[in-house]
Amino acid sequence: MRRSWWKILSIALLCYTIIAGFLGGVPAKPILNETIRNLYFHVAMWFAMMIFFLVSLIYSIKYLRGGKLKNDFYAAEFANTGILFTILGLVTGAVWANYTWGKPWSNDIKQIGAAISLLIYLAYLVLRNAVTDLDKRARVAAVYNVFAFFMLIPTLWIIPRLVESLHPGGMGNPAFNTKDIDSRMRIIFWFGAVPGWTLLGLWMTSLRIRMRFIEEKQLSNG
Questions:
Q1: pLDDT tens-digit readout, 133-167
Q2: Distance between CA atoms of residues 108 and 165, nearest Å
Q3: How many domains is the chain built from?
Q4: 20 to 30 A Cα–Cα from 180, which one of 71, 133, 198, 214?
Q5: What is the structure's pLDDT at 157?
Q6: CB of 46 closer than 8 Å to CB of 85
Q7: CA-CA distance, 201 to 182, in Å (whole number)?
Q8: Residue 186: inside a domain, yes or no?
Q9: Are 122 and 90 contacting, i.e. CB atoms less than 8 angstroms apart?
Q10: DSSP-derived secondary structure letter, 4
Q11: Is 91 exposed, middle or buried (0-12, 13-18, 19+ CB in 10 A)?
Q12: Quick one: pLDDT band at residue 168, thresholds 50, 70, 90?
């Protein structure tokens, strides 16, 4: 039970996010209107995505420093979860765009940056599957993972802020000021949605890692 408290917490936080987020009022904003509630899904998933990619980067660096294959397994599974949340972020963003911009894909600079980021990490998976030797695969993947993470910074956080965009946050606007969301939405977002989605992703990753070690143990015994 003690080991499961954070799993229960993840479900509780997401239930709070859904209930409080959909029952309460939201700021009256032109175009966005009620769709602003997607903030608890789309934006929170992107925050969780960055956390998973950061943790994956840390484990890749730990592998490069120590050479333990366990760290490579952790890096790969956290990257997998980050990719999943990237896809979820793109899908929820496309749904949001369809209601606010008139179509799901407008070749907006942030949409393009998100798609490039997804392709960068999909290439990470392709690279891993292309190398059969475990040690060589781990080394190559770790080096590429460092490159992949730092490519996220210009594609997601720098270039989109330098170019005019339909997306909130263009031209330096952080999209979290008092004109965009109120204090109640901030509480739900920071204390419900972000930790809720992050803990859920951590739960999924921990299950994948356990399965990975079981498979490795079976192969070694066989």
A1: 989 999 999 999 999 999 999 999 888 878 877 77
A2: 6
A3: 1
A4: 198
A5: 86
A6: yes
A7: 27
A8: no
A9: no
A10: G
A11: middle
A12: low
